[in-house]
């Protein structure tokens, strides 16, 4: 087998949470191009249905399953839908996340705190539990963490704490599920999706200033495809001996 | 363009030090499979010539350049040979390394220590200098070791050297961005001939060693596992990845 075959995902079935837009949309397209059938999960039905239609239009196989990742039953139904529709489950990407609150830790309301933990942390635990009970041997779980897990980002301390916990979950799940299922995480930085731009209160016109401020060694922002290519590598046979790792895709930060 | 095209290295020219056997041999085959022309460097001419012939037999392009990586003039000549033969240089894998001495840090002779520093650290620095002055853009991958992350009694000198390689990786990445990306791979236990000799085990002893090491994935790694990581890191798929250390360890 040539090495390039080792990056293919033919015959695999992949679930992507938060798959309706932004980084999740890029991950879904990458998985599809690598040969996987993709199940798109997000709260907004029209978002996931659009991504599924885009993938189908390119000749890929995709299904949209509107899902609330803060509801464990909804996650169980999602995993079951993947198996029912495509016959198996081999890849699960915990990508849904984010935060509606931005501000100092001392200013976070209890509800905002709890919502951040529910979306970013508990959903990863519950999503992985739902996935692995149905997953075939040789499966792969990828958690989309954040560079905010590694160092303080004032105003995002709650989000950073949740993502640090996701990194820890990644390491423990990897040990507990080896050798049957591999579990890795990716830490993106500075990918100006709609969600990020809203959180920062900027639009397209503010990106050049932000780029200057961010001092990214690579000299550009990341794209959802940068994350998608990392997810494909980590989910593919090419990374068959990689588990429990936290992989920064950050432009050098 | 499909994401699968992102892992291709067509038209690239790659140098692999320590390319005569073991991990370097696996890395060279992977780079060739992905489309790169490969320049194989190692001290023993017979070994690099064999790997070059194997790659050519599969339809790849390869050149053997016997090289002592502890000699900076030899590294300059190696980089120049890559450009002279294949017309450019875009990928450089600092894979040569190892240690002949094993034992507690207090028992090492000054010569053991110096040899380890020369081979594992200084060669990476000098080779990177030789490479980047001939690279317009591209990727450097340093083969570090999991030993860099935690103490392994008996390999403290090697661990210190590999920790220095990780640090070099981070600084070179900042200094060479955005033109050239620099990353490292930290392999875990991969039973190459060199490693088996260092650990004093033969083929028959491998199953017992695997149990003792408790590798979460339940198996040793293969040179191919490292090769696939090198291809990913050198390819457009990782074009926004620099200054990072990727552990390929079976879960350690």
Task: State the main characteristics.
heterodimer; A: 253 residues; alpha/beta; 8 helices; globular; B: 252 residues; 7 strands; 44% helix; 15% strand
Largest interface: A-B, 45 and 45 residues
* Percent of sequence in beta strands of chain A: 15-25%
Series of H and E elements of chain A: EHEHEHEHEHEHHHE
* Helix share, percent of chain B: 40-55%
| Main sheet attributes: strand count, strand direction, barrel closure of chain A | 7 strands, parallel
Q: What is the CA–CA distance across the termini of chain B?
A: 35 Å
Strand content of chain B is 15-25%
Secondary structure tally, helices of chain B: 8
Radius of gyration of chain B: 17 Å
Strand order of the largest sheet of chain B: 3-2-1-4-5-6-7
Q: Number of DSSP strands of chain B?
A: 7
Structure annotation, total helices of chain A: 8
Provide mean pLDDT of chain A, rounded: 95
Provide the structure class of chain B. Answer: alpha/beta
Overall description:
- The complex is a heterodimer of chains A (253) and B (252).
- Chain A is of the alpha/beta class and 253 residues long.
- Chain A is 44% helix and 15% strand.
- Chain A contains eight helices and seven strands.
- Chain A has helices spanning 22-33, 45-57, 72-86, 110-132, 157-177, 194-200, 207-214, 224-235, and strands at residues 13-17, 37-42, 62-66, 91-94, 139-144, 181-188, 246-249.
- Chain A has a seven-stranded parallel sheet with strand order 3-2-1-4-5-6-7, sandwiched between helices.
- In chain A, α1 (22-33) crosses α8, α3 packs parallel to α4 and α4 packs parallel to α5.
- The mean pLDDT of chain A is 95.
- By secondary structure, chain B is α/β, with parallel strands linked by helices.
- Chain B has eight helices and seven strands.
- In chain B, α1 links the parallel β1 (13-17) and β2.
- Chain A binds chain B through residues 2-4, 6-8, 29-30, 33-35, 174-175, 178-179, 182, 217-220, 222-223, 225-226, 228-230, 232-233, 237-245, 247-253, and chain B through 2-4, 6-8, 29-30, 33-34, 173-174, 177-178, 181, 188, 216-219, 221-222, 224-225, 227-229, 231-232, 236-244, 246-252.
